[in-house]
Prior knowledge:
Blueprint: E1 2-4, H1 10-21, E2 30-38, E3 44-51, H2 59-66, E4 72-80, H3 82-89
Parallel strand pairs: 1-2, 3-4
Antiparallel strand pairs: 2-3
Amino acid sequence: MLLDREMDHPLVDKVRQALTGDTAWQAPPQIDDLHVWRVGRDKFAVIASLASDDPSLTPAAVRQVLARYAELAHVSVEVNRPGDLRKLQAPPAAA
Length: 95
């Protein structure tokens, strides 16, 4: 997991907790990458890369959860499905 902490701001911990502690999802996602940075006086941007096989965890759902933080001016979310990757890497079935 890569966490960008160019600043020591409480918002970073709030975002991380919102991503992993929200009860709307069956299981907390894995945070593969998280960047939070200042884009204005009191405004921040977030880029998050998450891994989860929970179909209810979508970029739109994550943006909705993070909408509670008015100071987030831009939120970009990527959700990877580890199960899909495992299917692609599985050897072909014997005929």
